[in-house]
């Protein structure tokens, strides 16, 4: 270990100084920087030239620099002196950068650590960030200004209280989170996750997001894209579990005219459309082994071929994959290729379930209610403290997706200004709550039931009932009817009454086709795409349905 002094002697002795060191000689000290003799920086690298470079870079700004060429010297330094920032090489002759990082954070928690790494060790460098490193930089260094800016930002963080660090961190990525719909809340785990995601977003590496269904994996992927240098290029998402294998291959890679039945023209795939942008592969664990082979080739070579094509096409995409299954277990069970897993798992981010960050639930609830008000539905609606207590105590197996649906249901059933416990689903309250307007006392169960039944009968027999509703009211009525249907079915089951039998597969298929046609307003191509089948297949099924209708008639 040595206290650096006279780095210019090193430059004088070098017969051919590197471009970076030459830049240091000709660059002035940036204006506006306050020189501080109190700022102490530790540089740990076994290459003497690297230590000298940092001395040249930092001492001219008034920082005190100590250089250690081994893990032993670094440990002596952190036990003898106080440092604000430590710049640590990942590979040391007698130590590992990750272990040294943890030792620095243990002895001097306020010291911010920047890891130096080669590109081939990016995975380990990201692991360092997850262990508490401020950031990492890749060697060889190419941009002096970026290094200076990174160290200055680390100095701003150094020694600050957790709350101050949280504010500084949020100031960097808060506007991006708001723009992409990433509601962070108050939990430390989510703030830490977004800080890590923001830092790795600027590094052009693949990301694997793990989390339960409904935790917001696609929203996190959009956040990473928006914070990346590719933010002005396309972001395209595809659900690998929602399409049959042949359709997924065509969706990903495109197809040539005549490649298969129904391929009436050439079609570009998502890898082609997302060129220079970001491709989000949701439910990657559901992809078949043959699709996995093709994905691996694209990630390794940057080339693919359309279905039925003969000419390779180059693509430059950043892949963010997501899954709610344990891919490592899938690899052990031979259901997922190990080589593809390691290609995707350069950086792994874990989205915690809602039950593990309950302090975020009130923030999310208020956000969803504010969204309803912004859309002109349930203006200025609030939630009572009793209802909030119930919501916060619920386990939310469906996570954020279930929470937003529950809030929308409660808001639809609430005709006042405040959501009460009675407006929440019995699934959430843990009891069968019969909806009742606040302030209205019904004489007894039988009277209430008869009154409700008469009301429903009047609505059913009123042919012009929908015509009397405004456009924005129709979706709420549709939603309430679905909620009512489910509650009636639950009540019948609890009372031991025979429920209507479930629909057969054929009936479900006919209903799905009818709903797709209604949704697409008769557009066969769009309806087929929604159903995940080919257009010719949909035509065939429609002819079969017409034939059945004539037979019945």
UniProtKB/TrEMBL annotation:
Residues 183-412 form the Sigma-54 factor interaction domain. One of its GO terms (molecular function) is sequence-specific DNA binding. Keywords: ATP-binding, Nucleotide-binding, Phosphoprotein, Transcription, Transcription regulation. Pfam families: AAA_lid_14, HTH_8, Response_reg, Sigma54_activat. The modification 4-aspartylphosphate is found at residue 89. PROSITE patterns: RESPONSE_REGULATORY, SIGMA54_INTERACT_1, SIGMA54_INTERACT_3, SIGMA54_INTERACT_4. It comes from the Bacteria. Gene3D superfamilies: 1.10.8.60, 3.40.50.2300, Homeodomain-like (1.10.10.60), P-loop containing nucleotide triphosphate hydrolases (3.40.50.300). InterPro entries: AAA+_ATPase (IPR003593), AAA_lid_NorR (IPR058031), CheY-like_superfamily (IPR011006), Homeodomain-like_sf (IPR009057), HTH_Fis (IPR002197), P-loop_NTPase (IPR027417), Sig_transdc_resp-reg_receiver (IPR001789), Sigma_54_int (IPR002078). SMART domains: AAA, REC. GO terms for biological process: phosphorelay signal transduction system; regulation of DNA-templated transcription. Residues 40-154 form the Response regulatory domain. May play the central regulatory role in sporulation. It may be an element of the effector pathway responsible for the activation of sporulation genes in response to nutritional stress. Spo0A may act in concert with spo0H (a sigma factor) to control the expression of some genes that are critical to the sporulation process. This is Stage 0 sporulation protein A homolog. It comes from Desulfofundulus thermosubterraneus DSM 16057. The lineage of its organism: Bacteria, Bacillati, Bacillota, Clostridia, Eubacteriales.
């Amino acid at each position: 270990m040595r206290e650096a002094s006279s780095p210019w002697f090193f430059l004088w002795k070098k017969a051919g100084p590197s471009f970076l060191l030459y830049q240091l000689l000709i660059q002035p000290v940036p204006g506006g920087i306050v020189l501080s003799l109190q700022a102490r920086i530790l540089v740990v690298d076994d290459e003497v030239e690297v230590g000298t470079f940092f001395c040249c870079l930092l001492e001219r700004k008034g920082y005190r620099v100590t250089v250690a060429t081994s893990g032993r010297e670094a440990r002596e330094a952190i036990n003898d002196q106080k440092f604000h920032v430590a710049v640590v090489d990942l590979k040391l002759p007698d130590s590992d950068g990750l272990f040294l990082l943890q030792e620095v954070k243990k002895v001097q928690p306020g010291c911010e650590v920047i890891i130096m790494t080669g590109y081939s060790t990016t995975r380990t460098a990201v692991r360092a960030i997850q262990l508490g490193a401020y950031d990492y930089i890749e060697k060889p260094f190419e941009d002096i200004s970026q290094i200076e800016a990174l160290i200055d930002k680390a100095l701003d963080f150094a020694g600050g209280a957790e709350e101050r660090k949280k504010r500084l961190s949020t100031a960097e990525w808060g506007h991006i989170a708001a723009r992409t719909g990433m509601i962070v809340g108050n939990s430390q785990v989510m703030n830490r996750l977004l800080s890590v995601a923001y830092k790795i977003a600027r590094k052009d590496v693949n990301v694997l997001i793990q989390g339960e269904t409904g935790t917001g994996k696609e929203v996190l992927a959009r956040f990473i894209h928006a914070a990346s240098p590719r933010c002005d290029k396309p972001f395209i998402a595809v659900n690998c579990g929602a399409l049959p294998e042949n359709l997924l291959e065509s969706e990903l890679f495109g197809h040539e005219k005549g490649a298969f039945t129904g391929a009436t023209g050439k079609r570009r795939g998502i890898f082609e459309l997302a060129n220079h942008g970001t491709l989000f592969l949701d439910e990657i664990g559901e992809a078949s082994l043959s699709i996995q082979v093709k994905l691996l080739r694209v990630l390794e070579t940057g080339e693919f071929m359309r279905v039925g094509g003969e000419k390779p096409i180059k693509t430059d995409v950043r892949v963010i994959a997501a899954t709610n299954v344990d891919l490592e277990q899938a690899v052990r069970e031979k259901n997922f290729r190990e080589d593809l897993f390691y290609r995707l798992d350069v950086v792994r981010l874990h989205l915690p379930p809602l039950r593990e960050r309950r302090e975020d639930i009130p923030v999310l609830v208020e956000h969803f209610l504010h969204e309803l008000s912004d859309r002109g539905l349930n203006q200025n609606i609030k939630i009572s403290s009793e209802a909030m207590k119930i919501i916060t105590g619920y386990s939310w197996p469906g996570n954020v997706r279930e929470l937003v649906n529950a809030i929308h249901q409660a808001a639809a059933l609430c005709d006042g200004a405040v959501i009460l416990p009675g407006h929440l689903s019995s699934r959430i309250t843990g009891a069968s709550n019969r909806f009742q307007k606040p302030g209205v006392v019904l004489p007894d169960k039988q009277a209430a039931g008869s009154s409700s039944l008469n009301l429903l009968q009047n609505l059913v027999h009123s042919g012009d009932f929908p015509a009397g509703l405004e456009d924005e009211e129709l979706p709420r009525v549709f939603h309430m009817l679905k909620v009512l249907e489910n509650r009636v079915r639950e009540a019948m089951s609890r009372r031991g009454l025979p429920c209507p039998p479930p629909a057969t597969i054929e009936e479900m298929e006919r209903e799905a086709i009818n709903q797709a046609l209604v949704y697409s307003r008769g557009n066969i191509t769009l309806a087929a795409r929604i159903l995940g089948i080919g257009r010719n297949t949909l035509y065939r099924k429609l002819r079969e349905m017409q034939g059945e209708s004539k037979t019945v008639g």
